[in-house]
Amino acid sequence: MTKGPFFKKILMFSLPLMLTGLLQMVYNTADIVVVGRFAGSQALAAVGATSSLIHLILNVFLGMAMGSGVMSARYIGAEDDKRLEKCVHTALLLGLISGVAVGIFGFCMAEKLLILMDSPADVLPLSKKYLQIYFLGAPASLVYNFGAAIVRSTGDTKRPLYILSATGLVNIALNLVLVIVFRLNVAGVAIATIVSQYISAVCIIIRLMKIEGACRLHFNKLRINVREMKKILLIGIPAGVQNSLFSFSNVIIQSNINTFGATAISGVTAGSNVEGIIYTCTNAVSQTTMTFSSQNMGARKYENLGKIYMRCLLIATLIGGSMCLFGVIFRNQVIGIFSTDPAVIEIGAARLAMVLPFHIFCSLMDVGGGQLRGMGKSFEPMIITLLGSCGIRLLWVFVFFPKNHTLPYLYWAYPISWTITFFVLFIAYFIIKRNILKKENML
């Protein structure tokens, strides 16, 4: 990762990450499709009403997983095996502890949180059931994500792909059996999800036990090293807070969407899942930016940072732009995958027609944040996202949206916040890089 040319290397590293992310997204998307097709619009709305809340709670800890990947890559670039070993074992134990804490909190607070989001009374019981079962899988989810971040930091993006290929198929099969055959409704898709998550966690642990070098997992070495934990948290907490603030603004928007009723929730849920597929693909480029930049920072090859960033922006533009164009052209057919209800299809397709032409700025914004985190700067993108993305969305919802209480007007919160935040992050990269070079007496 520290030697060019970078375009092909970045693309080859990103592609398995994209497929991995898509397979991981299959967990929730399969839930949406199965309940929408076989359990009705109310069940679809019940699952859809939980998505923003799940992301809000989990993202802080997924940011910590990101921090473990950044620090592992840094030590690999610096060839510091001693610190790498401590980092790996600290990260995995931290992931397990975090998962248990999240699971207990999510299970106990499910109903209260859904009520705070103004979830419609007719879908609240189903949403609560789905959410409580889902959070029983939080320990497995976080152990997998911490472990996968470490595996990817070594340059191996294929093993996580193989794992999720298998568990994704398990998830889909269980969804169909539990919903269609046993008629378990939202409980069935939630059970299928957590079973798949636990299988993924076991598989990534097995991989770490077999990996060569200082990244190998030894259960007798699992302990929290305070120094390494601080470094992981220094990168991970701002990244997690950034993602959670992002999700918090989405929760506020979702709360306003909930006021339009179950049909609107279903349509928006379907549209959001299409956008999520695009985001997942381009987020792989963001993770690539972060890993490549982190290894080059560890090797002190600062001249490569700009090459990596610009090539990642180009790849994200090509991939995201192509997918957005496809989504706009075939929006009715795409939404039709999630539901056969004409009203749901109309609402979902209208959202795609409005939001997707601007979605490329979401992708570029994400790459910008990944680049800064890879350079060891996690606080700056958090603040920029807080003010640029979350602040603008909240301003739109509370100041402008009440003047025109319609779904299309509410959607404008997304493209405006994406565009402004991307350009601020783009400028911040050049300022931060210059400061790094000055500190190293290279300017």
Task: Please provide a written account of the structure.
The chain is mainly alpha-helical and 443 residues long. It is globular and about 60 Å long. The two termini are 24 Å apart. Helix 4 packs antiparallel against helix 6. It has one domain. The model has no long low-confidence stretch (mean pLDDT 88). The protein has helices spanning 7-38, 41-48, 51-78, 81-116, 124-135, 138-153, 158-181, 185-210, 226-258, 262-298, 305-329, 331-336, 342-355, 360-374, 379-400, 407-411, 413-439.
Quick structural gist:
With 443 residues, this protein is an all-alpha fold.
Radius of gyration from the alpha-carbon trace, in angstroms: 21 Å
Question: What count of structural domains?
Answer: 1
Number of strands: 0
Characterize the largest beta sheet: strand count, sense, and whether it forms a barrel: none
Q: Could you name the ranges where pLDDT drops below 50 across 5 or more consecutive residues?
A: none
Order of helix and strand elements from N to C terminus: HHHHHHHHHHHHHHHHH
Overall SS class: mainly alpha
Query: DSSP strand (E) fraction?
Result: under 5%
Mean pLDDT: 88
Shape, per Cα inertia axes: globular
Q: Tell me the number of helical segments per DSSP (H or I, 4 or more residues long).
A: 17
